[in-house]
Amino acid sequence: MKKTLLLPLLVIAVPGFASDVYQQDGYFGVQYNMLNQETGGDDLEPSALQARFGLQFNPFVGLEGRLGYGFDDDDISDGAASISLDPEWLVGAYLKVGLDRSLPVVPYVLLGHSTATAEVTTEFSTLLGTARNTEERTASDPSYGAGVEVNLSEETAITAEWVQLDDDDDFDLTTINIGFLQRF
After folding, report:
1. Quick check: helix, strand or coil at residue 122?
2. CB of 119 closer than 8 Å to CB of 86
3. CA proximity to 163, closest of 85, 104, 118, 108
4. Could you point out which of 4, 43, 85, 91 has its C-alpha 20 to 30 Å from the C-alpha of 76?
């Protein structure tokens, strides 16, 4: 008798539990990126705007893609020479792992891969005039970071994060991002 009652209860209960655990939710967002490019001397700090799209597999794990475009360059000069960094494209894909996203404040970590393309211009004065060289540089490296979502509602959140985009010896590229997230 107990077995015959238990089986129908399991058949009814398991799909309801599974739908909550395995529910996939998508999201998109926009972020302002404050980039920091180490140069061995003064750092360059251009800006970018980035769109992010993701799929949350459960309350703790998601996959995310990002596409950004630089809109503000930065330069440094010592009088005789100058260097300018103008970010063009930022592309990334990440595994996002964090606490239960139903909490009011949700910390998370990112692990993935990023590619950043920028136009780098160097200019220096010589006795014959000014020499100028412009080239496009691309950095593509494993990336990692950490952030926090502050939920405004079940569907919206504001975000803040730090991400290491490029980890070369003396020329690290990091970013601090502030953004908005919409779940659907």
Report:
1. strand
2. yes
3. 108
4. 91
Q: Which pLDDT tens digits describe the chain residue by residue (184 residues)?
A: 555 544 554 444 444 444 444 456 899 999 999 999 887 778 889 999 999 999 999 999 999 999 999 998 888 888 788 888 899 999 999 999 999 988 999 999 999 999 999 998 999 888 888 889 999 988 899 999 999 999 999 999 999 999 999 887 656 889 999 999 999 9
DSSP per position, 24-76: -EEEEEEEEEEEEE--SSSPB--EEEEEEEEEESSSSEEEEEEEEEEEE-EEE
DSSP code of residue 129:
E
Domains of the chain: 27-183 (2.40.160.20)
Indicate the residue type of 47.
Answer: S
